[in-house]
Design brief:
By secondary structure, the chain is α+β, with helices and mostly antiparallel strands. The chain has two domains: 84 residues, no CATH class; 107 residues, Immunoglobulin-like (Sandwich). It contains five helices and eleven strands; from the N terminus they run βααβαααβββββββββ. Strands 3, 4, 5, 7 and 9 form a five-stranded antiparallel β-sheet that branches. A four-stranded antiparallel β-sheet has the order 8-6-10-11, with no helix packed on it. A two-stranded antiparallel sheet has the order 1-2. It is rod-shaped and about 110 Å long.
Length: 230
């Protein structure tokens, strides 16, 4: 906010202020009386100003009564005040290629952010393989790897998830295949993946955990992991 009358002598109600080369301010003190911080905006912008615009409303009412133009106190910039820019000049100064470019970039960022929030999957999955035992042979001629699945339900409603596994011939989960996760919460599960020992693969092999909500088919994640075959 800037005070347009602060740079010239103030007029008196009974004089021809324009002939005297003075400003529109008539020293009514309305702007000072309505200011919640008690500053005199006629002396220019001060750090105590909270931008409430009470002085603008009070001044405009006085200007209407004495027949002067509104806008003696207004939101503006020091540059516009020094160059005596009117509303048209201020608008023309704002419509520049750089401003338009920045506006387009800001709008694009806003739209991309809104779209990403709208289409995001309210499920996050972390797969942590047990590093204590790389692989072990269990009954039935199977090789077993153990994993910790951390399911993070970021939705506002609870969901029931089915856990599947793929990537190797004959691979399956030994125990847990379903989990219930409350809204906005995290649940950790320890699962065992088993593969027939005669599968043919050796070393570090890629597998995938398929986790999907049975009550919301659109919520589904496929998370990559590694299976160790001795």
């Amino acid at each position: 906010m800037a005070a347009a009358a602060s740079r010239v002598p103030r007029a008196q109600k009974s004089e021809d202020y324009k002939a005297a080369g003075k400003g529109d301010c008539i020293d009514c003190n309305i702007c000072v009386q309505v200011c919640p911080t008690g500053i005199d905006i006629r002396n220019g912008l001060q750090y105590e100003c909270i931008g409430c615009s009470a002085c603008i409303d009070g001044c405009d009412q006085v200007m209407d009564k004495v027949g002067y133009a509104r806008g003696l106190i207004r939101y503006s910039t020091e540059n516009a005040m020094e160059k005596n820019f009117g509303r048209a000049e201020v608008i023309a100064h704002l419509i520049r290629p750089r401003i338009i470019l920045y506006s387009v970039i800001l709008v694009a960022i806003t739209l991309v952010t809104a779209y990403s929030i709208a289409v995001r999957t309210p499920l996050k999955v972390d797969v942590i393989r047990d590093r204590g035992v790389l692989a072990r042979e269990v009954e039935g001629g199977l090789i077993e790897n153990v994993y910790t699945l951390r399911l993070m339900n970021t939705d506002e409603a609870p969901h029931h998830y089915h856990i599947g596994i793929s990537g190797l011939d004959g691979i399956d989960l030994a125990d847990i295949k379903d989990a219930e996760v409350a809204s906005a919460s995290t649940k950790s599960l320890v699962v065992s993946a088993r593969v027939p020992i005669d599968n043919g693969g050796k070393g570090s092999l890629p597998i995938f955990f398929d986790i999907g909500a049975t009550d919301a088919p659109a919520i589904r994640i496929k998370e990559k992991a590694v299976f160790i075959m001795p």
